[in-house]
Amino acid sequence: MLILSVESSCDETAVALVEDGRKVLTDEIFSQVALHKLYGGVVPEIAARSHLEVVTLLADRALRTAGKTRAHIDAVACTYAPGLIGAVLVGVNFAKSAALALGVPLIPVHHIRGHIAANYLAYPELEPPFLCLAISGGNTMLVDVRDYTDMSILGQTRDDAAGECFDKSARVMGLGYPGGKPIDDLSKQGDDHAYDLPRPAVHGDNPFDMSFSGLKTAVVNIAHHAQQTDEALDKAGLAASLCRAVSESLVGRTMDAAKMLGCQNIAVAGGVAANSRIRADFEAACKEAGKTLFVPPLRLCGDNAAMIGAQGYYEYLAGHTAGADLNAYATMEL
User: Fold this and answer.
1) Mean pLDDT, the chain, as a whole number?
2) Judging by beta carbons within 10 Å of its beta carbon (0-12, 13-18, 19+), is residue 323 exposed, middle or buried?
3) Which residue has the higher pLDDT, 39 or 47?
4) Digit-coded pLDDT (tens) for 20-36
5) In terms of domains, do 20 and 152 share one?
6) Distance of alpha carbon 259 from the chain centroid
7) What's the DSSP call for residue 209?
8) Domain coverage including residue 147
9) Distance of alpha carbon 182 from alpha carbon 246, whole angstroms
10) Model pLDDT for residues 174-226, shown as the tens digit of each residue
11) Do 288 and 305 have their domain in common?
12) Which of 13, 48, 79, 173 is the S-S candidate for 30 at Cβ 3.0 to 4.6 Å?
C-alpha cells in the first residue's frame, strides 16, 4: 500500500511516499528555519504562508523522485493535530483535496503518534508493545504503546516541553534559533557540573509527570545575572549542565516506568531525541538494565512526512479514515 503523506504542523513542510508503513520511497522536506531565525522563533503566519507556497511543489517532487505517478497512490495521510493551527490547516486541506481528486482514502494522523512511528522506519523488527518517550519542542510525554493505535500516556510535562526549555535557554545565551543543536554542540566543550541547576519536582500522585519551566527559568536567571553584573558567563558549562539536567529528568523517569510495566523495549522519539547527551545516557541506562533501546537516526527525529506515512498505514488498517469534513486542531490528546 503506497501512502502519500503530508506534515505541516510547525516550521517544516514535508511530503513523503511510504510503502506498507515501513519502507520510505522518498521524503521531501522544506525547512523554514531561515525564515524564522530573524524573529528568534516560529511566527505562525509566516509558517502557514510558507507551507502554502511549497506543499504542492514537494508533492510533485516526491512523485518524480520515487518514479511514481498519481495513479500509484493508494491513500493520503496527513498530520491533523496538534500544531500551529494555521500551519496544520494547510496540510489538512491539501491532503483532503488530493484524496478527493485521486478517489483514495484520507487518513488523519496525530503528530506525536507519527514521531513514535519513526522508529518503525528505522527498526523493521520493532513491534508493540513498548514504552516510548516522545520529546519535542511542544510535547514531552511517556507513552505506553500497547498496539499500533492503542496508546496511553503514563506521564507528561505539566508546563514547558523539554525542547522549549532548550530553545528559550539558547535564546538567552545568544545562540540563536532553533536552540537544540547549538546547545548540544556547545555542551560538548563544557563541564556538566559547572552550574547547579534544579531538577523540578512535580507535586501529585503521578511520579512520571515532568516539569521544565523551573529549569528554563534558572538558566535565564543565571544568564541575566551575569549580564547585569558583568560577570563572565561560562556558556559551554551552562549548556552542558542544562543537557545533564534535562537528560537526568527524562532518563530516570523512563527507566522507572519501564520497570513498573515490565517492559523490555524502550523507544525515544521527537526532535529532542537528537540530543547527544540524552542518547548516550539512554544507551548507558538501557545497557545497565538489560533493556533494548530504539532511537531513530537524526534525520527521523525532527518533523518529517515519512513518520506520518508510517503511522498512517496502521491507522488505515485500524479503520481510522476521514471524510471531507476533517478539521485541523491545535491541541488534541494522544
Assistant:
1) 96
2) exposed
3) 47
4) 999 999 999 999 988 89
5) no
6) 24
7) -
8) 127-299
9) 15
10) 998 888 999 999 999 999 999 999 987 787 889 999 999 999 999 999 999 99
11) no
12) 13
Query: Helix (H, G, I), strand (E, B), or coil: what is residue 157?
Result: strand
Whether 122 is in a domain gets the answer no
Q: Where are the alpha helices (DSSP H) in 127-275?
A: 162-172, 180-187, 213-229, 235-261
Report the C-alpha gap between 274 and 144 in whole angstroms. Answer: 21
**Residue 283: which pLDDT band, with cuts at 50, 70 and 90?**
very high
Cα gap 140→147, rounded to integer Å = 20
Question: Do both 98 and 173 map to the same domain?
Answer: no
Is there a single domain that holds both residue 155 and residue 289? yes
User: Does 324 fall in a domain?
Assistant: no
Please check the confidence at residue 37 and state whether its pLDDT lies above 80. yes
Q: Which residues contact 160 (CB under 8 A, 6 or more apart)?
A: 168, 211, 212, 213, 216
- 145 and 211 assigned to the same domain: yes
CB 304 within 8 A of CB 118: yes
Residue with cell 471531507: 324
Which secondary-structure segment (H or E) carries 7?
strand 2-7
Indicate the pTM of the whole model: 0.94
Cα separation, 254 vs 186, in Å, equals: 26
Largest Cα span, the chain: 66
Per DSSP, the residues of 15-52 read: EEEEETTTEEEEEEEEE-HHHHGGGTS--HHHHHHHHH
Q: Which three cell numbers stand for residue 104?
A: 483514495
Long-range (24+ apart) CB contacts under 8 A made by 101-104 are: 102/70, 102/73, 102/76, 104/73, 104/74, 104/75, 104/76
Distances (CA, A) of 119 to 10, 148, 300: 21, 12, 8
Report CA-CA distances (Å) from 258 to 134, 145, 254, 309.
Answer: 14, 12, 6, 28
Residue type, 16: A
